[in-house]
Amino acid sequence: PVDYISAPDTPSAIVFGQMGQEDHVMVIITLGGTINFKILKRTADFGLNQDTGISPTIQSKPLPLPKRSKLFLEQSLREKQNPTDMHQSFQQDLIRLRLTSARTLLQINSDQSGIGNTKEQIKLSAQVLGLGPTFTLILTVENMNPDKALIQLSAIFHCNPENYQLSLYTLPIPFVPPSLSYKIHNKVIECLNDGLPKDE
To answer: Smaller CB count within 10 Å for the chain: N or C?
Structure first.
């Protein structure tokens, strides 16, 4: 097999040798005056008779996984003992969130005081990733107006601090061009009040 490299311009000079602490370096000078350095890996192996059935040495070593903390073990045991209750609790919170959102939308649509800008064509959608106690809330802000961009907007997250903790409570929304969307990732932590000790 033959290997090849490409240069951005016509080479004017090519030299191969040692440079600094590297033993195998190729320097290419082009007619346009640019200099390109090609450094060969020190661990490169050009042997043709390699046994593909033998795994590399690096794969035989275990991955450096972090140690499992006491809180992680207790939380895992809690999930194994009460999987149904935890899932039902999550579903209830999700239904309650949808109900609150629907009530708020109905109130805004029926309010005649002119809260909000009716000229702005904005579509909001939320997605929940995870089952708890830590999950991610993804809020998508979509600009439905094909001619006007969204500027000077902010997202405000409100929740009961006794039940949830958010990584973001207020966030300025950047410039959103017409017919495009912007996603906000907010990490949510459920406050457990079952007397679990904190991991020091």
So the answer is: N
Cα gap 161→173, rounded to integer Å: 23
157 within some domain? yes
Residue 178 lies in a domain: yes
Placement of tokens 């006491």 in the chain: 70
Start-end of H helices in the chain: 57-60, 70-81, 83-110
| pTM of the entire predicted model | 0.38
- Give how many domains the chain has, as a whole number: 2
pLDDT (tens place) for every residue of the chain, 200 residues total: 567 788 778 888 888 888 878 888 888 888 878 888 888 887 777 666 555 555 555 556 777 777 888 888 888 888 888 888 888 888 888 898 888 888 887 777 666 444 444 566 788 888 888 777 788 888 888 888 888 888 888 888 888 888 888 888 888 888 888 888 889 888 888 776 544 444 44
